[in-house]
Amino acid sequence: MSALLEIRDLTVRRGECPVVDHATFTIAPGECVGLIGPNGAGKTTLLRAALGLMSHEGRSSLAALSARARARQAAWLPQAREIAWPVEVERLVTLGRLPHLPWGHRPGAVDRAAIAAALARMGLTGFESRRATELSGGEQARVLIARALAQESPLLMADEPIAGLDPAAQIATLETFSNLAREGRAVIASLHDLSLAARYCSRLLIMDKGRIVADGRPEDVLTEDALARVFHLRARVHATADGPLFQPLGVVT
């Protein structure tokens, strides 16, 4: 099975300091990958460099593509969620179809079906004619996720996609990502909620100081030692039927 993303020795420097330091991994269809690590670990920089949005050393299979081919291969959900223009929700989500539309063509039946499906996945059916700027912050975040889903790319890359969402919307979003993987697509998302990452991701990449220090199944890499060493937390990890449960107990000084 061919990989949807191949990263080899990817390095991003700020001056002489590597912000991302020789990252190497692949993502295959069917994977839902959680990218975790403390603030400043390099998660956002890694995702942006992998997309070719910033200069880097090493190789990213996505960065090697043309902009249009890249947009067909991967949908990008950045951390910034501000919607500046008072456009209708459906029109905003329609922007996700641009990589599939020849220049000057209007969305057709296939595009409209993809838009409706994306809105339904994010619980936004009935919001089509509402102004996006009049929605709550959490609703706006769901609209932007719907735009990325409407792109129907094989790979979805998301930077803190559940930040600012209420608990139910966080779970619904991660269930949607997990379902995308089960359908044969793939997701890589940076996350801070370790319990949700362990429950909904089939694989975790742990970053620390620009390096990927662990890569594997949640139950294998989310250990008490890793939590102390990388996150500086004293914590317990409980095995449950729904996956590992993370219980913070204190700060390691």
TrEMBL record:
GO molecular function terms noted in the UniProt entry: ATP binding; ATP hydrolysis activity
Keywords, ordered alphabetically: ATP-binding, Nucleotide-binding, Translocase, Transport
Annotated signal peptide: none
PROSITE patterns: ABC_TRANSPORTER_1, ABC_TRANSPORTER_2
Residue span(s) of domain ABC transporter: 5-234
Keyword Transmembrane in annotation: no
Function in brief: Part of the ABC transporter complex HmuTUV involved in hemin import. Responsible for energy coupling to the transport system.
Name recorded for this polypeptide: ABC transporter
The species this protein was found in: Roseivivax halodurans JCM 10272
